[in-house]
Amino acid sequence: MIQIKTVGARDRCPGAVRSTRRSCPPPGRGPRRPLPGLLLAALLAAGLVTGCSAGASSPRPGAAGTRPAPVTEVPAGSLVRVPRPDYSSPASVAAAFYVAWASTDAVHDQPGTYLALCAPLVTSALERQLAASQPAPAAWQAMHRARLVSLARVRAVTHPAGAPAPTATVVYLRLYAARVTTTPAGRRVASDGITVQLTRTGSRWLVSAVLFY
Fold first, then answer.
1. Exposure pattern of 175-197 as b/e (b: 16+ CB <10 Å)?
2. 158: which strand partners?
3. Predicted pLDDT at 133
4. ∠ at Cα 37 (111, 97), nearest 5°?
5. What is the mean pLDDT of the chain?
6. Is the separation of the CB atoms in 184 and 170 below 8 Å?
7. What φ, ψ does residue 128 adopt, rounded to 5°?
8. What pLDDT does 13 receive?
9. Could you tell me how many helices (H) and strands (E) the chain has, helices first?
10. Domains contained in the chain, number
């Protein structure tokens, strides 16, 4: 079970939700997934990075109020293991979302696998943003050729100090995670994390915004 921990002064974000890391994307642009660091320099040099670790031509967003169809089914051999969420727990849903959103298995998955993994955990509006923010196929092909696997594991979930107080319908959470990236060339472990907003939709909590990462 994911438990929400109390944060200290170093996590404080006065006023509205803030972060010392990268800020939220400009309006109209979907939240971009973190690119596994092992290939970042190489992909930048090749001009392949457009800001996301999975690549595909952008699927057509769904009509207002509807969910776009998942880009692809989740391959049976995928190494990305998304925890089963407890939709009554914002922390559980946030943790499952982070694993789906931040993990990449370029060996077994397809470019749109992460969208299929995220879809049950996000609002319709955020799903459309995720679908619209995918980069050109070249970045995915570069990772596929490198046989890159980057798996995220959530280590802690907190209420960010200074964020609006939780209500019956909206909660802000900060996730701290470890990322393990492997290729045939080696293995790298790094710290990672994001801040998200969750909204209660009916009887379920869903991630409605990625604020910082």
1. bbbebebbbeeeeeeeebbbbbb
2. 5, 174
3. 80
4. 55
5. 76
6. no
7. -65, -40
8. 40
9. 5, 6
10. 1
